[in-house]
Amino acid sequence: MAEKILIVDDDLDTLRLVGLMLQRQGYQISAATNGQQGLEKAFEEDPDLILLDVMMPDMDGYEVTRRLRQNPSTSETPILMFTAKSQLDDKVIGFEVGANDYLTKPTHPSELQARVKTLLARSGDKKEKAAAESGDENRGYVIGVLSARGGLGITTLVANLAAGLLNRTKSEVIAAEMLPGQGTLALELGLTPSKGLVDLLSTGKTSELTRERIRESLTHHGSGLNLLLSSDRPRDMHLIGQVVNYEAVVSGLAGLARFTVLDLGVGIQPFATKVIPQCNEVLILLEGVPNTIIHTRALIEDIAALGINKRSVNVVLNNRIRSDTQLPSSQVQTKLDHEIIGTLTPAPELFVQATRMQTPAILCQPESLTARQISKLVDFITEREALPR
Hints:
Blueprint: E1 4-8, H1 12-24, E2 28-32, H2 35-45, E3 49-53, H3 61-70, E4 79-83, H4 88-97, E5 101-104, H5 109-135, E6 141-147, H6 154-169, E7 173-177, H7 185-188, H8 196-201, H9 211-216, E8 219-220, E9 226-228, H10 243-254, E10 259-266, H11 272-275, E11 281-286, H12 290-304, E12 313-318, H13 329-336, E13 340-344, H14 348-357, H15 361-364, H16 369-385
Parallel strand pairs: 1-2, 1-3, 3-4, 4-5, 6-10, 6-11, 7-9, 7-10, 11-12, 12-13
Antiparallel strand pairs: 8-9
Helix pairs in contact: 2-3, 6-16
């Protein structure tokens, strides 16, 4: 959404010329022709910036600024004073009553544009910082799931772990695909394909990635889960480099649910260096074969190099197929030199049935061995969530 600028000036020519110039720069313009009208519009419209003339007949810009600063809704709104006065004392008064910047008429359009852009950028940074600080208390628990190589069942674990957390806590839970162009959840759960993640990553301004915008991008499943779905079009993979958008999306998701489970894909993707530090827990999925164990050890070291405490990195052994070539959990743990917090045993028939029923496997057969194994992971996550952060 375009940033809104309120221009308050009794000179109609100034209103028209400055308003048109800023409108061409993509800003949304609102205008007032006197101080009282300016105050009313400021309180009602909550502009992102106020461009305020000093010399007005009924109420000068200094008094307007004083009243704006006394009102909580406009106490932090940037004010750029715009006047024909050039005396130093006049500028000092402007700053004393709360103006953020001061321009003398006439001014060059490029200078005005630069000042406006700077003030809006500073204001946006302050708002983002304040939102982050105020949102810390309400921030949910974020679990990132990844593996050292593909085909190990990351998406399946994400869906079932999220369903298990929802069943256990009766709280809002989000399962989110993080790889554009590689979405599979919609197909597995019988949902209409969605470009929720792709649309968010394609957004030009991170300031537009509000929690409300992110919530609108979620898809609701009949199980009660909310899902951030990716597209299944490989061409969308180019968005994987939109690191700043990824940060904003994950931060927004964390404020929308008690638990957010992220499908981070294979290895450390370009966005993962910023997303993984936002996770409260990192789950690495592996299978009991020597090469995967070697790759997983390296992945754990790479994650630790991002400044992540190894105690927040947990390993889940997923034996997807019945095979004598796969090592038992104890041997995998020894070779990996890292604790394994859970093991999933083969259940191909259950997962085929779950796909047919278009639901997570643990909801398809709640008393199955797989459901009990997922429940142990849910126990681990909920116990960790309860600890002081």
